[in-house]
Design goal:
Rossmann fold, Dna Ligase, domain 1, D-amino Acid Aminotransferase, Chain A, domain 1, nine-stranded antiparallel beta sheet, 32% helix, PurK
């Protein structure tokens, strides 16, 4: 693994050209780096701010090798990177994050194993490959439970709640399509939180404020930071992050979603990259999740994180864009981030806005009153 410092003038390759790559690139350009992005969509959001785009599929190994030749270091903005491509880059010693984080987070079975190996609490679950195993798992775990594909799926896709025996057929159909499912106990919880952190190639780690997440239709709607939880919960979140990071060998910015019930947490999902729930860090902290990520993969020291009070981040889906901008004069303090996506779709993340203040609860209540946040 390369541990030399890559300074300004070096070239960063990014696999994936969406909004996370765009925000990585914006920071990298400020720091003096050149950026090459690999993405199949011409003029993708990242390409609009990068120096160069390689237009090719993510699993096009010729294109991946071309990216490697042009780059001093390579990173990615999403976890479904082709593993063969990641291994080629790792063998070339230009992928500090390595392939293991991708391998683990691409597969919910491996992800659960990593959580357990890290001695972190998880909901009861079973991996099933046959209808008989599915039936047995549901009988043991009970209703309600949730069926999830072990690979693929995001924003609620690839999963179904099983409330009674009548829902088993849905899970059977999912199993026929996916060959392997994870059946999890449905966990009643007080709230969902996430912790975004960054770890260097030498093991140094910094944590951003624990954030509280509000979902609508399985899509992140708003994030409140810091989360409305006790210091005991926040400390458990940081301890879990450290344990999992060391087990997997995390390098760069990483996110963990958790459920909170009373003073207990359950680990839910891992994301080996900057995360939607960490967007508030751009305005609310002295360093963003994206700058820390660039610093980590380039071998630079991390900045000690200081938070400037409270923040609320709200995602702008396609259906939200016109209503928000029609009342822009009523929200002069909104920090606006639009992603440059060519096509506006009702449930597509087109941008986000962040509001900063001393008290995140006051901000949140004001946004509910203005109907910017759905209560």
């Amino acid at each position: 693994m390369q541990t030399n410092k890559l300074l300004f003038g070096s070239t960063i390759g990014i696999i994936g050209g969406g909004q996370l790559g765009r925000m990585m690139t914006t920071v990298a350009k400020h720091m003096g780096y050149r950026v090459v992005v690999l993405d199949p969509t011409p003029d993708c959001p990242t390409a609009q701010v990068a120096d160069e785009q390689i237009v090719a599929a993510y699993d096009d190994l010729t294109a991946v090798k071309q990216l490697a030749e042009k780059s001093d270091v390579v990173t990615y903005e999403f976890e479904n990177v082709d593993l063969t491509a990641a291994q080629i880059l790792e063998e070339s010693d230009i992928l500090p994050q390595g392939a293991n984080s991708l391998k683990v987070t691409q597969d919910r079975e491996l992800e659960k194993k990593a959580m357990i190996d890290s001695k972190q609490p998880v909901a009861d679950f079973a991996i099933v490959t046959t209808t008989a195993e599915l039936q047995a798992a549901v009988e043991k775990i009970g209703y309600p439970s949730v069926a999830k594909t072990c690979r693929g799926g995001y924003d609620g896709k690839g999963q179904a709640k099983l409330s009674s025996e009548a829902d088993i057929e849905t899970a059977v159909e999912m199993l026929e399509q996916a060959d392997r499912l994870i059946i999890e106990k449905w966990v009643p919880f007080d709230k969902e939180i996430s912790i975004v952190f960054t770890r260097t190639q030498t093991g140094d780690i910094t944590y951003f404020p624990v954030a509280e997440n509000i979902h609508r239709d399985h899509i992140l709607h708003a994030t409140i930071a810091p989360a409305r939880v006790s210091e005991q919960i926040a400390d458990k979140a940081r301890q879990a992050a450290k344990a999992i990071a060391e087990t997997i060998g995390v390098v760069g910015t990483f996110a963990i979603e958790m459920f909170v019930s009373g003073e207990d947490i359950l680990i839910n999902e891992l994301a080996p990259r900057p995360h939607n729930s960490g967007h508030f860090t751009i305005e609310a902290c002295d360093v963003s999740q994206f700058e820390q990520h660039i610093r980590a993969i380039c071998g630079l020291p991390l900045i000690s994180i200081d938070s400037h009070g409270g923040a609320v981040m709200v995602n702008l889906l396609g259906k939200d864009v016109d209503p928000f901008f029609s009342q822009l004069d009523d929200n002069p303090n909104a920090h606006i981030h639009m992603y440059g996506k060519a096509e506006n779709k009702p449930l597509r993340k087109m941008g986000h806005v962040t509001f900063i203040g001393d008290n995140p609860l006051i901000i949140y209540n004001e946004l509910v009153e203005k109907k910017i946040i759905e209560n």
